[in-house]
Amino acid sequence: MNAAGIVVEYNPFHNGHFYHVNETKRKAKSDVLIAVMSGSFLQRGEPALVDKWTRTKMALSNGVDIVVELPYAFSTQKAETFAAGAIQILDHMKCRSFCFGSEEGQLDPFLQTAARLYEEREALNECVRSSMKKGNSYPTAQTLARETLFQDQPLPLDLSKPNNILGFHYVTANNELNHPMQPLTILRQGAGYHDEQASGHIASATAIRNLLFDQKQADHFLPHSVLSILTEHKQNGLIHSWELYWPLLRYRLLSIHLDDLNAIYEIEEGIGPRLIDAALKSNTFLSFMERVKTKRYTWTRIQRMMTHVLTNTNKKEMNDAAAHVSFVRLLGMTENGRSYIRAIKKEMAVPLLSRTAAAVDLLSLDIKVSRVYAAASTAPAHYTEQLLDHEFSAPPILL
Amino acid sequence: MNAAGIVVEYNPFHNGHFYHVNETKRKAKSDVLIAVMSGSFLQRGEPALVDKWTRTKMALSNGVDIVVELPYAFSTQKAETFAAGAIQILDHMKCRSFCFGSEEGQLDPFLQTAARLYEEREALNECVRSSMKKGNSYPTAQTLARETLFQDQPLPLDLSKPNNILGFHYVTANNELNHPMQPLTILRQGAGYHDEQASGHIASATAIRNLLFDQKQADHFLPHSVLSILTEHKQNGLIHSWELYWPLLRYRLLSIHLDDLNAIYEIEEGIGPRLIDAALKSNTFLSFMERVKTKRYTWTRIQRMMTHVLTNTNKKEMNDAAAHVSFVRLLGMTENGRSYIRAIKKEMAVPLLSRTAAAVDLLSLDIKVSRVYAAASTAPAHYTEQLLDHEFSAPPILL
């Protein structure tokens, strides 16, 4: 069987994702589509709108055959690490190709850019380091370094665009595999990644989340199946947002020892007292973020730090877990997906795990993280209980 | 001026406390009454019903001239350490006498018992140690050891009664001072310490708290001034109970590393996984406690452990803070109390602190603890804010 892979968050699944699913199948001529999907916390350092099981149902209802989890150690990281984890997992799943949406839309610029940056990697790293010493954030330092180094012969890819950046890192990570997959890209349709305005039938996930947080209709931008999954979810569960975790995060910041705060992943020496002081003064996550944000510490960067404070994830455990992909966690599959898994399972280089109960050591970080996700304030007791039980003992979803 | 001291929790102040205040003044022939009062968390490992400022007002409205805080490092400890801290503080405040309520009611049995246990202290400790090795709790081991050692000549004091135990430790701690104060005791009136039933105008604080938790009238058992202070408090603030902290404690237990849990004060190696497992299964503090309680781990003992988990207080910081009294924190005073403080302040051996802002290092444990107390779930934002501000920058209450 010919499997294609995609890397997704589905927060939530929308019409743009539906287009991506179908275009991938068409371009890859695949008969199985595998999505590696972030679990409870996402790349921009946010809790997922709805739990991973509900998002798995959305995917399986809309053309995806297999959903595996991108573990916390990769899902909450900067593009480079995020992409490396995702590509390794698709490789473990024996995908022949993978396909990502990009603002660029053509593959060649990615391949050429990857090749040129690889040639210049040492000069580039040096440039980024010295720029960060001057107080620039990592993304700004990268942009400046590329502008300096390639001013005579500009790179063919616009690396200021978020999906181009991710795509570039997918291609780079793929190049590092023993047997690279075939990369494919499609032009992103409709609104841009960060756009909060919607147009046509396609809106960014950000715009759709804002509609959902405000309890407004987002029907126009979501497949029917997703709408009914969301409606069913809301009868029993929550729409998760950072505000629901603010009482817990605030409590943690008000009681943590400074040494322990400094040991949290991505926390830099010196920012601790500033975080604690802001927590003292802030009644909401939003006002906390407004207080803490600076030019150096971008919104996304602070959100990622706060995700790790909330989940109590320290530098050591994160670095250990992100060192390499040591398992693949299966969240759900269709019948078609099941046949594929039967065919490849014995050939896989890492274990394919169906239940966390079977591998509590390998999954310890993800188990902890999903427990914190389930402890959202205002969550009804039965909902928290259901999430905790599901995580630990339920089999993958079969749709 | 002749100052007398009392050790109190006032959770809340009731008619029995009013009797204690007046009897102390009469017996001690004092012209100033000083109460050393537990702050946010109490000896049985519970959050105080209302914050320390509200309880200070209750005391000052009912005959107490000065309220100083029994720091967290003493207020949440077993009788021996609790008493040692309280007696040292009253000594620092230059009290000539102190007076405690007891089931016994006469002083001589306390003095004789203290003398005999002092003589037999080595045999006794040996007995307690070997009894605990057999799985008995500390209080049970003490009782059994005394029964064994003094079976021919029983001690004149019934040390199965909670206020007799406390009184005994006050007397013992007092004996260790360079210049011991004059001990005094009065017979406790009305209901016993743990009685949940009330009779007459005096009910135990436990019975009164249960009435208040159930939103029933407790008017009969409280001075009028306390009733109006409570009524005013409820317009703006909360009646605190363990249940309000359960979402925070549960979150903490679900995200803490086992090593860090084992480092928490009073947590014994081996109980950690049991606590975490119970937290996973319990939607309320009450159901958690029912799951965790055993013959070895009494209710009070687990509540104290949970207090330290909630406040993230580890063995090292607690042992350091409880090693000796290094400051006295002034919570409130009457005009009469103020005159007394002016007279003694310069003679005091440790600093008398009015604002935490002035001594953040000395008070670091108490500052952290009062922040956690203020972070109770369901607390309205303005109330949390008020508690945080008051703790940090407000002067003592002057009534």
Automatic annotation (TrEMBL), chains A, B:
It catalyses: cytidine(34) in elongator tRNA(Met) + acetate + ATP = N(4)-acetylcytidine(34) in elongator tRNA(Met) + AMP + diphosphate. SUPFAM superfamilies: Nucleotidylyl transferase. It is an enzyme of class 6 (ligase). This is tRNA(Met) cytidine acetate ligase. Signal peptide: none annotated. Catalyzes the formation of N(4)-acetylcytidine (ac(4)C) at the wobble position of elongator tRNA(Met), using acetate and ATP as substrates. First activates an acetate ion to form acetyladenylate (Ac-AMP) and then transfers the acetyl group to tRNA to form ac(4)C34. Keywords: ATP-binding, Cytoplasm, Ligase, Nucleotide-binding, RNA-binding, tRNA processing, tRNA-binding. GO terms for molecular function: ATP binding; ligase activity, forming carbon-nitrogen bonds; tRNA binding. ATP binds at residues 7-20, 101, 163, 188. Its main location: cytoplasm. One of its GO terms (biological process) is tRNA modification. Its EC number is 6.3.4.-. PANTHER family: TRNA(MET) CYTIDINE ACETATE LIGASE (PTHR37825:SF1). Gene3D superfamilies: HUPs. It is found in: Cytoplasm. Coiled coil: none annotated. It comes from Domibacillus aminovorans. One of its GO terms (cellular component) is cytoplasm. The keyword Cytoplasm applies. Belongs to the TmcAL family.
